[in-house]
Amino acid sequence: MAGLREAGERSPVGEAAVAPALKRARALRALREAGEKAMNALFLLCGLVAVAFVLIISVYLIISGIPAIRQVGFANFFFGTDWDPANKSGNPAYGILPMILTSIYGTAGAIVIGVPIGFLMAVFLSKVARPGPAAVIREVVDLLAGIPSVVYGLVGMMVLVPGIRQLFGLPAGDSLLAAVIVLAVMILPSIISVSETALDAVPKEYEEASLALGATELETYFRVSAPAAKSGIAAAVVLGVGRAIGEAMAILMVAGNVANLPGLLKSVKFLTTAIAGEMSYAGGLHRQALFSIGLVLFLFIMLINALLRLFLKKSGKEGN
């Protein structure tokens, strides 16, 4: 009987019945493999496009910005304290040190104010707040993230600048202090959202073990959850720094747009506001100098990303 069954299975009639199913299976497998290859090629293309954009921007800024630095002089450009491209006496000045220091101080001030507030708010939303109030606060944070920067600048110009003028008895309230406060508010949504996501990703077992060992809830949040989520919190800080450095329109409306050495109550000019405020009428060497400022900003962002990678790599080694 077994021999007859095997003979029937090997008969031409059995093979004819099985052949269409095998063909369909092979066709489906080939189609699936072709789809996977197509998706891999698409992902590779998207990655190459992103790299190409970065390379194009880098090459364009280098080609457009280096000539001005050469003509003005490296020391005069980066360490000069006068920025006066439209000098009527025929001796224009292209020193960007005041703007570099202003951008650094303004960004640092915004981080000093915004990061603690954003981090504490993220801890509150992730670990302390009840679902109802937390949902309302998240909606408000999302709304803050969606407000255009010009609206922040308008509110700062109409409310914050007059308040600083009256509070300190100044002729004008346009100042570095106003810019720092506006930047601190603008970076809050990024810091809160990313930090909260990082804190939510911490395994519950970590917190349960800490509480079981006798730690309080606050000790657990700040000594267990926060260190475990430090890579995500660091990414949130970098996003905040990137927005603070790259913001132009809101700062243009509250900082005064004067290239002074930075002072908390003095009118100042950021690197970004120089580009935004002067590019429309600049020409010749002045225009090339603005491209050089763009190159400096680009290098700042690259430096921040490199420091983040170094920090995360060092943290990963210490964690292991």
Note down, in words, how this protein is organized.
This protein has 320 residues and is mainly alpha-helical. The chain has two domains: 2-72; 98-319, MetI-like fold, CATH 1.10.3720. The protein has helices at residues 2-9, 12-72, 74-79, 97-128, 131-146, 149-168, 176-200, 204-212, 217-228, 230-246, 249-254, 271-278, 285-319, and strands at 83-84, 93-94. It has a two-stranded antiparallel sheet with strand order 1-2. Helix 4 runs parallel beside helix 7, helix 10 (230-246) packs antiparallel against helix 13 (285-319) and helix 12 packs antiparallel against helix 13 (285-319).
Set down the secondary structure blueprint.
Elements: H1 2-9, H2 12-72, H3 74-79, E1 83-84, E2 93-94, H4 97-128, H5 131-146, H6 149-168, H7 176-200, H8 204-212, H9 217-228, H10 230-246, H11 249-254, H12 271-278, H13 285-319
Antiparallel strand pairs: 1-2
Helix pairs in contact: 2-13, 4-7, 4-10, 5-7, 6-7, 7-10, 8-9, 10-13, 12-13
Name its key features.
globular; single chain; mainly alpha; 2 strands; 2 domains; 320 residues; MetI-like fold
